[in-house]
Amino acid sequence: MAKLLYRIGRSAYLHRWRFIAVWLIILIGAGTAAATLMRSTSESMTIPGMQSLETNDKVMEIFGGSDALNAPSGTVVVRAPEGKTLSDSDVKADLDALIADLQSSTALTATDEIVDPVTAAAGMEQQFTEAKTPQLEAQGLSDKEIEAALAADLADLSPLSEDGRTGTFTILFNGESTMDIEADDITAVTDLIDDATTDNLDISYAGNAFQTTEVGGTAEIIGIIVAALILIVTFGSFVAAGLPLISAIVGLGIGIALIYAGTAFTDSINSTTPTLASMIGLAVGIDYALFIVSRFRNELISYVGGNDLEPKELAQKLKGISHQERAHLAGLAVGKAGSAVCFAGLTVLIALTALSIINIPFLTAMALAAALTVAIAVIVAVSFLPAVLGAFGTKVFAARAPWVKAPDPENEKPTMGLSWVRMIRKRPAVFLITGGLILILFAIPVFQMRLAMPTDGTSKLGSPQRTAYEWIDEGFGPGRNAQMVGLVEAAEGTSTDDAAAVYGAAVQDISAIDGVKHAQIIQMTEDSSAAQLLITPENGATDAATSETLQAIRDAEAAFAAETGASYEITGATAIYDDISDRLSSVLIPYVAIVVVLAFLLLMIVFRSLWVPLIAALGFALSVAATFGVTVGIWQEGWFGITNDPQPLLSFLPIMLIGIVFGLAMDYQVFLVTRMREGYVHGKTAGDAVSNGFKHGARVVTAAALIMMSVFAAFILMDEQLIKVMGSALALAVFFDAFIVRMTIVPATLFLLGDRAWTLPAWLDKIIPKVDVEGEGLVGMTAPEAEKSSV
């Protein structure tokens, strides 16, 4: 691989304008595809084969209606000022004006069904009494019990709160699903609602149609600015600092454009997918380019024997290198550092694509989209970047930053990295134990981790969706936001009268369960073979008690079936999301085990060692545990006051985090430890090899880690909860893994192991493939030999 990458890098340098032109054509083509094919992203978060989803489909098949998770609908919530009601004349006048405006909107369909909550509630009470009384009488209830049941049933369905202050109504956008809604239609309706808000009437909105996220770029821009500053400090040159940014932006632009174009072919891409891919693609794109540019700089200095030269003499020598020689050195940089980049990128790709085996479409889409941006970042780094180096020629390290002193690591004695590793070498056991204890202590809160799917209740505080959720919570009780649907099916051959009694028994049994506020029959088939129940819990959608209530309802089904011969199943958004959280939680530990084993096998092949991959895998597990612990502390428990809105972690965040962190951890392991192994193979003692390798790699790994942390941390500014938490968690993970595991625990352990760290049983050494990640095949290659090699 090293020789192939050498030829690509050298050719790109020599034929720079051809390579640059091809990549610009690809970028323009991807942008054109996105502009012409892009559709609205989907907010569907479902899992095939899950019982609650199958029950949801069965309910729609039996009773009709639209899919609650994908219907192009929204809920408008209106509220009168404190001390007033929606029936008051001045409030009602503003409410009627809002209804009239919505009925005349071309962005909506079925506008004649839009009715204000006051009118709807009055009509519902009369119709409800007429329709429900016979059902309740069939259950043998007394008049008083019927009256109480009617009042309770109506309270859970009425669009008007008991105090008359809060009301809701549904609007339906044009289209079959949320993906079919035009962005302009959503804007038109939200503008209309905002304009209709008055001193007499507060208005907000929530629901499927309003869950789309606008494409932003603030976080990316902040990340790029911070990365640029770190790169300037690293290279001491404005030009050199800009090259990794150019490479990363080109790769990211192509990747994100292709993801948006992909919305035309799949409904699994949600609003979070491109943002997450942007976060990962930008970070790895900058880092991979950084490693290659840094290696090119080292190759230039080594070529002229500049390790012991004064800066002015070194600069003069560098000017004397011909264009052909520079192309050769660029090829060496791509062949050596590029091999590690390709392997590091491969580990990220494997970890991300492995998420597809869980068979969750939206999670698979997120993983594959992020993997796409990583793959493009690797290809751009080894082909586009050397072409840009060729375009700048001798000006690559020009435009020096006057306030920055960035000596080459080979010429700085001792480097900060060497000073640090010498400290570790003196007391390796102390550093190993201290690093391990720090990670274990930070990991303790992980045992309190709660997972939940995103809802309007987890939206940003102050957003229309969150406001609407809170108004419903205050006006109707928290259970209104967490209602579930029960499907009860009578045994075959059950008479109409017996079926009514069976359904009544289901209502009574479920209503008696702790945590259930109320249950009622809302629909029956004409032949009475099935009934649909509405179940209102006492607690909210993301409350742990609601999950316990759901499980208790399901646990009670066996006794109900044994007594009546009928059966019931539970569905609805709350049940579906809870099931998704359970499914994701159940696969978390197996996935961690798969990733750790995979890390061990990959690193065993690369480093021809059993101890090095074992240390890497265990270190990865510790850094992930610490990351989870601190993330739970900050975002769920409210540590340090960073968030004023503690929430359960989003269900798919841990498993996505594991996949991404695995790849990043292996990046640092490869870039740091390969130089250690290279020294050991070439005759250095085990201790000297670790120290020397650390000295060579510490500066660039530190810069790469700081860049990644900066890019990820910038996404904390996003409004979307998943991205905010994911950004902070990834920044923490990079810190723990790069600085505590890779730059402290790993060298400490290697010092303790000595020669044993680099040994492999002879029989195993024969059967595992040999991978030249260090570019050993290029060592000693001269420019004339390169000419022959590239023919």
From TrEMBL:
Question: Is the keyword rRNA processing assigned to this protein?
Answer: no
Q: Which InterPro entries match?
A: MMPL_dom, Mycobact_MmpL, SSD
Domain SSD: where? Answer: 221-391
- Might you report a single GO cellular component term? plasma membrane
Q: What SUPFAM superfamilies does this protein map onto?
A: Multidrug efflux transporter AcrB transmembrane domain
* Keyword field contains Membrane: yes
Q: Where are the transmembrane segments?
A: 221-240, 245-263, 275-293, 340-362, 368-392, 429-447, 588-607, 614-636, 648-668, 700-718, 730-753
What Pfam families has UniProt attached to this entry? MMPL
Q: Which UniProt keywords apply?
A: Cell membrane, Membrane, Transmembrane, Transmembrane helix
Tell me where in or outside the cell this protein is found. Cell membrane
Q: Which PANTHER family is this protein grouped with? A: MEMBRANE PROTEIN MJ1562-RELATED, MEMBRANE PROTEIN YDFJ
Which named protein is this? RND superfamily drug exporter
| The species this protein was found in | Corynebacterium terpenotabidum Y-11
